[in-house]
Histidine-specific methyltransferase SAM-dependent domain-containing protein
Amino acid sequence: MPEKEPKMPEKIPQLEKKEKPLKEKKELFSYWAVLSTNPEESIANIAKRKKALIKIQEMGWENFEDFKIRSMKIDSITKGSREKRGWWDEVSAFGWPSPKAVETIDGQIGLSGPVFGQTPEIYNWQAVLGETNIGDKSLFSLDIALLDEKKSWGTREGADHIIEQIEKNIKKNKLNVSFPHARSLGQEALRRALPDIFKEIKKYVWEKCYPMAAIDDAVANLEFRLTTEISREIDQEMDKEIIQGLKKREFDEKIFYLGPGAEKYLEYLKSNENKLNNFEFQLIEKNLDKLEPFINKRIIHDLGPANALKVIPLLEKQLESQKEAAYVPIDINPAMIFAAAANINPKVKVEGKILDFTEPLAGKFEAGPKIFSLLGNTLGNGDENYQKGLLKNINQAMTSDDYLLVGIHLKSDWQEILKNYKSAQGREVFLSAVENLGFPMNKIELEIIADEENRQIKAIVKVKEDLEVKGVRFQQDEDLTIFVSQKYDIGELGKLAQSAGLEVEKTFIDEKNQYELAVLKKGK
C-alpha cells in the first residue's frame, strides 16, 4: 500500500468560469462563432443566429459545449500485471515504447447540455493507468476515453455512436437553425467539451479508485478484477449518514474505512499491539481440519477482508484438495481489496466487490456454494440493532447450501482488552477517522473506555470548545461516540443468530475463553 493517500498528478484548475456578457466574448465556442461558415454574413443569417441564441439561453445554457454531470458511476476495476516484457513487446509498431495497462477502470457518466440533451444521456467511459518503460525508468499516465455501448476503444464506431446521439439532440431542439450540418456541429461541441469532462472523470477516479495502489510492489504482478457500486449517488447517501451520525452523536464502524482511515487500520493490523486478532488467526489454524467440511468446494466471500491474513489458511487448505480456489473480498474501500489481494496465493482467483455490506446483499452474488466470512469481530462494530441487521442482511444473501463463519471477541480481562485499543497505533486509527470527519484536532480530546455494564469498548470524542462540523454545532464538553466494539458472553452468539434466522452448526473457543469462531447456516 502507498504511504499516503494518492494525490492528483496534475493541478486541477478551478472549474467554475466567470462568463462575460455575450457582446464581450471573443473567440468563444458560441453560436456567433460555430454557426459561421463565412465571415461575411448576411443580415438574415445573423437574425437566425440570434434566434438560436435565444433558444439556447431559454434552455439555461451559454455555449454548445456547456454540460452538467448528472451522475457518475464506476462499474469495475481490472488490475493488470506490471511484469517486465521482452523487448519485442516493449516497442510498438511505430518504434516507440508501448504502455502496459496496469489498471483499467470502466464506468458511466450522465451528461446533460445543449448537445447532450436536457434529459441526461448515459455514456460509457474507460480510464487506463498505463506504464511505459524507458530504460530503467517507468512513466505512468492515466488516459480517459468515452466509449460506445459496445465499449469500442478509440474506434470510429465508438465516436459515431456518441456523435449520432448528439446530432439527434441538436435536431430535436432545433439548434442548427442556420447551420445545416448538425453532425459537424456535434463533433466540434464534443471536442471542446471533452477536456473538462475528462478532468471530472479523472478526479473521481483518483479520489475513489486509488490508482497509485495498483503500482505498489506488493501487487505489481498480480491480476484480478473488482466489480463496484461506487457512484456519486452512494457518495451522497454516505454524506447524509455522516451528517446523521454527527447529529445523533454516534457512528457505526464504516467511517474508519473511508479515505486514509483504511490505511491506518491496515498499519494497526501489522502492529504487535493487535493481539485480539492474533487469537482468531490461531484459532482458525488450530481447527483447519474441523473447518474443512464447511469450506470444501465453496467460494470464500470475505466481508471486510482487511489484509486477508485470517482467510489465507482456509484458502491454502482448499488448495490441498482442490485444483483451484476462488476468493471474493468485499469491502467499501478499494484500498482494502488491494491489501487483501497482495497476500493471496497467485493460484487463487481473486474477484472482489466494492460495496457496503451493511446495505441489502440479496441478489448480488453469483450462484454456487459459498461460505461467507465475517471475522475480526466485525459483527460487534455497532449496537444490538446493528448486529441483528447485519446478520439478517447476510442471511438474505445465503442459500441453504451456504455457510457463514463468524469471529467474535469474548468478554475477558477488560484492562488487557483496553491495551489493544489504547496503543499508539490504535489511537491513530481513531484520530484519523475524527480528522476525516472534519474535527479540528486542537479542539477535541479522545477517550477510550470500557463500558463493562454493556460489555463494550467505546471511543469517545470530547469537545473542548464550541465548534461546528459539516454544519452541525457542538458545544463545549459535549461527547461524541465514534466507535463501539461489542464483547460477548459465551453462548450469546447463538441467540443473536437465531433472532436473524440463522443457527449455529459448529463453534470453536480458545483455551483462555478470549475468542470464539462459529459456523452458522440458515435456520429451518
